[in-house]
Each structure stands twice: as structure tokens, then as C-alpha cells.
Amino acid sequence: MPRRRVTLRAVTALFLERQHLAQPRATTLTAPRLRRFVEDVGGIQLDSINVLDRAHYLTVWSRFGPYDRGWLDRQVYRRRLLFEYWAHAACLVPASDLPWWRRAMLDYRSRHTGWSGWLRRNGKMLRTVQEAVQANGPMGNGDFEGRRAAGGGGWWSWRPVQHALHHLWMTGALTIHSRQHFQKRYDLLERAMPGALGVEPVTAVQFQRWHLERSLRAMGAATELDLARYLTFPRFRPGVRRAALREMLERGEVTEIELEGSAGRWLALTSDLPALARAGRAPGSHGTTLLSPFDSLMWHRDRVARLFGFDYRIEVYTPGPRRVHGYYTLPILHHGHLIGRVDAKSHRAERRLEVRHVHFEPWFASAGTPPRGPDRLDLDEAIAGVASALSSLATFVGGDDVELRRVTPRRLRPALARRLLATSQPPDAGDTPAAEVVSRSI
Q1: What pTM value is reported for the model?
Q2: pLDDT tens-digit profile of 285-329?
Q3: How far apart, in whole angstroms, are the C-alpha atoms of residue 174 and residue 168?
Q4: Which pLDDT value is given to residue 146?
Q5: What span, in angstroms and rounded, lies between the C-alpha atoms of 169 and 436?
Q6: Do 213 and 269 meet the contact criterion of CB atoms below 8 Å apart?
Q7: Which residues are 174's β-sheet partners?
Q8: How far apart are alpha carbons 146 and 401 in whole angstroms?
Q9: How far is residue 84's CA from residue 44's CA, in Å, rounded to a whole number?
């Protein structure tokens, strides 16, 4: 039977829709919208880098614009709408997915056999750490520093305790109760999430099928490599994922599709075929936002290159002289196209957002055709959208001033500077300052 042919436009449009980026920053954040967003994408990645803001805060801002971080923390650590677990990497995942992640927790010990030697050597520590949390309530690594076990055994060093806490978290004995200055504080799962231990975990087979279904739904359509690189935890044994996928194909739950311009096999949930058809006919994405380097849209960067023609690399760990675009660059999404990237830094004490470098893609700067789309973008409209996104970001990170430094190509800098000024000043406020740094009050 011939495969159903699907356009690149349809796959990209549905991907953006499922990632809640079809109309970025167009709706305000509410608890139901937050829950729906995280259920649709599968998780919000956490990361410790704070040069601008934490990755999970930025990911939510990209969809909803400025909001109260304290409110988000309360949804996670008080209401338990979300909880921390490993999905792509360390993520906030929906509490509604607990029956499936409980299976991953229960299987962690047998699946991750690399712990075997450590557990044999440190079994007593594991028990003592769990007992300490049970007796004392939420605890973090720092609460164990300098302590000694009864009898002066001397094995309360920081590193083994960190391993013990991590293992107890991954196996579901503990969960992340809260964070202080981004440092984890652990508590018993049943105390932090009452009723969690009573949740009936799904079977291993059900979990494998759910894992594939969740990833396919989040992406709209995907290759097998895309599936392996989206929700990367747990790493299934060779052949397990393929067997589960084959069964879903045989049952008619997944359909093979042919993507225009691609020779490989693509897959979609059969229930998503009408959505793909609609996405191919519907108006494109509208709006402008900036994405965290750890945004779920960017999790598999080779997929991003195939769908958007955008080559993106995280350069945080690249030595400074070898960086091409900057330390912490945010991809610019405008009307469904990735048109460039922004390297920015928040100077919190000075309440200043420094935009170190805005680097536009060559096709965009020359008013050319997007690499994965037939329609040219309006350059002035896009520049205005970028200025709006930067102003919104400044508001979110507490920047009263925005400083615009480099723009590539340089000829687009005056237009972007004028648009930034226009966001807070009347149209006749004067010409763009000639200084290399443009500063404006928000």
C-alpha cells in the first residue's frame, strides 16, 4: 500500500502547533494552559545556566510572555501540577503522567545496571540517607555536609550522598520537594505527593507504547531517529522500541507517511492524519518569540535543520574565541521560521538586558525566500517582531534598560534600534542615537 504523502509545510506547522508556538506570546498563562502545554510537549527541560534566566522559566515565557515565576514555582512545588523527573533530560513533567513515569521509576534499578557496584559498596549509605529524609523532612546535599554516621564511619562525604539522593529520586523513593537557589531539596515521594504510591503503574509494554505515542504526538510526525532523540529517557534496549513501533503499525495506531523531499520513512499517529491535513491548508504560524537553547522544539537539532533549514549549536561549552554566535544564544522564531539568534545577558543588579549580538540568517537579511517555505517575509514586520520580543524578555527578566550592541548584518542595526526605542517612546522621539550601544527605558 503506498504511503500517504504529506507536505513539509504540514509537518512543520503541526510541530509548531503541538509545541504551542503557532501563536507565541498571544495568550496569558493560566494553570490549565500550563498543564495542557506540558502534557502536549512531554516535559520542560531544567538547566542550571542562569546568564539570562533558567531554561524552564524561559520556555514558558516563549509561549505566554511575562509572568510571575513565583506562581510557576507554586504550581510545581505546592500544587504539584508538575513534578521533576528525567524525560529528555531533567524536566518538569505532568503529574497526570505519573502512572507511566512510575513504571520508569520501578524499572530503574534493573535497567541501569551501572549502579550495581556502587549499590553493593554503599547500600548502608542509601538506607541511612533515606531514613534521614524520612526523619527530618526535605533535605538537600548541603544538609549532609560534614556529618558523620554513628560510630564515625566517615562515609558522609558530599559526593556519595549526592549519588544516593539521585538514585533514590530516580527509583521513586524520593522526589524533588522544592528548590532553594536552584539547589534540590528531596522528600519522600508519598509525603510530597500524597497518594503517589497508590498510583497503579502501567506495564512495561504499555509504557513503551505510551513513550512512542507521547513523542509522536509532541512532534506531529517523526522519523525513528527523531523518536529516539525526543524523550531520551529511558534508553530502551536494542530492538525494544522497534518491536513496540512495529506492533503499533500492525494495529493501525501508527501510519507510515512520505514527506516531500525526504527519502526516509516518516511516521505519524493515525489519529493525527486529519490534523496533518488541516495543518497543510491552514494559515501559517503568526508571531515572534525567542527560544531557550533547551526548548523542546530544539531538542533534536538535526530535526530542526531538516524542517526549518536552521543550523543551531549550543556554544556554552565552546571556548570563547571559537564561538560563532555567542555564549547563550536564543533562536528567533518569526511567523513559523527561524530567522536568526540572539546572544543576551541579564545584568540583574543594574536591571539591564544586554543584547550582545543579534545574528540574522543570510536568507532573511537579504529578503530572500525561507529555506523551507515559498513565501518571503516582510523584513520591517519581522524586525518589529524581534524588537517586541526583546522588550518582552527585558520585562520578564527585570531589565529597565535594553542595550543593543552588535547586529549582523550591521545594516539592520538602525532599524532594530529604532523599533526598540519605539516600544517606549512616541514616534517623533528623534533619530536613532549614533552611539554603538542603544539604551532605552522600558
Answers
A1: 0.92
A2: 999 999 999 999 999 999 999 999 999 999 888 888 889 898 999
A3: 5
A4: 52
A5: 50
A6: yes
A7: 188
A8: 44
A9: 9
Instruction: State the burial class of residue 151 (Cβ atoms within 10 Å of its Cβ: 0-12, 13-18, 19+).
Output: exposed
Identify whether the C-beta of residue 437 lies closer than 8 Å to the C-beta of residue 356. Answer: no
Compute the CA torsion angle 295, 296, 301, 307 (nearest 10 deg): -110
Residue 7 contacts residue 281 (beta carbons within 8 Å): no
Helix (H) / strand (E) element for 407: namely strand 401-408
- CA-nearest of 70, 104, 44 to 298 is 44
Other CB atoms within 10 Å distance of the CB of residue 78: 9
What residue ranges define each of the domains in the chain, with the CATH number in brackets? Answer: 4-53+203-280 (1.10.10), 112-148+156-192 (1.10.10.10), 309-423 (3.40.630)
Sign for the pseudo-dihedral over CA of 274, 276, 279, 280: negative
Residue with cell 520508569: 104
Q: With bands split at pLDDT 50, 70 and 90, how would you rate the model's confidence at 374? A: confident
Q: Which residue has the cell 509522536?
A: 216
Alpha-carbon gap, residue 57 to 68, rounded angstroms: 10
Q: Kindly provide the b/e burial profile for residues 38-70, where b requires at least 16 CB atoms within 10 angstroms of the residue's own CB.
A: bbbbbbbbbbeeeebbbbbbbbbbbbbbbbeee
**Residue 407, C-alpha cell as written in the block:** 547586529
Task: Using DSSP bridges, classify how beta strands 352-360 and 254-259 pair: parallel, antiparallel or unpaired.
Answer: unpaired
Amino acid identity at 14? L
Cell of 37: 502545554
Q: In the numeric block, which cell numbers belong to residue 206? A: 504499555
Distance CA 341, CA 71 (A): 29
Which residues in 238-363 belong to E strands, given as ranges?
254-259, 266-269, 288-290, 329-334, 337-347, 352-360
- Assign residue 255 a region: left if phi > 0, alpha if psi is -120 to 50, beta otherwise? beta
Between the alpha carbon of residue 338 and those of residues 37, 360, 386, the distances in Å are: 21, 9, 12
Q: Which helix (H) or strand (E) holds 86?
A: strand 82-86
